[in-house]
Amino acid sequence: MHFTTARIDIDLTRQSLSLLGADGQVLACYPVSTALNGPGEQDGSGCTPRGSHYIRASIGGGLPSGTVFRARRPTGEVFNPELALAHPGRDWILSRILWLCGLEWGRNRGPGVDTFRRFIYIHGTPNSEPMGVPLSHGCVRMRNADVIDLFGRVGPGTAVTIR
C-alpha cells in the first residue's frame, strides 16, 4: 500500500483507531487508550490533541515487540514484568512510535499548542494496560501487536484525524 493513500481516524469517544483506505473503507480497527485528561491542545495539559495531523516520523521498524524507548531511542531493553517492577509508575513507550505533527495553525500547531513539540505519539504500551479506557498522558496507546501491524501499513506523511 502506498503510504499517502491510507489515513488514520482516531475516535476519542469510542477509544478506537481506524485505518481507512483511499475510498474510505475500513482496512483495520484497533482499540486504543487516549488521555486521562481528555481532549485538549495546550502544552502541559496531558490531553490528547484534536484535529488534522500527519505522521511526521516512524520510529522502531524491525525492533522486537516490547522494545523500550526513552526520548524516542531504544534503550536496549525489552519490556517484561521484572522491568515493570523496577520502574513503577513509568509511562512505557514500547515497540513502535508514530510521532504526530499538527496541521492546524493555532489549534494543534504553533506556540502553546504544538502536537509535535508536545511529543504526541501513537505507541505501544504494556499488555497490562487497558484499552478502551482513557489513561494516557496525552499520547494514543495501542497494544504492541496492533501498533506493529499499523506501523507496517503507514508511514511519514500519512494523514491522522483525531476527533
Structural overview:
With 163 residues, the chain is mostly beta strands. The chain has one domain: L,D-transpeptidase catalytic domain-like (Beta Barrel), CATH 2.40.440.10. It is 9% helix and 35% strand. It is built from 2 helices and 10 strands. The strands form 2 sheets. An 8-stranded mixed β-sheet has the order 3-2-1-10-4-7-8-9, with helices on one face. A hairpin with a 4-residue loop joins β1 and β2. The radius of gyration is 15 Å and the shape is globular. The two termini are 25 Å apart. The model has no long low-confidence stretch (mean pLDDT 95).
Brief write-up:
The chain has 163 residues and is mostly beta strands.
Please outline the helices and strands.
Elements: E1 7-11, E2 16-20, E3 26-31, E4 51-59, E5 67-70, E6 73-78, H1 81-86, E7 94-102, E8 121-125, E9 140-143, H2 144-151, E10 159-162
Parallel strand pairs: 1-10, 8-9
Antiparallel strand pairs: 1-2, 2-3, 4-7, 4-10, 5-6, 7-8
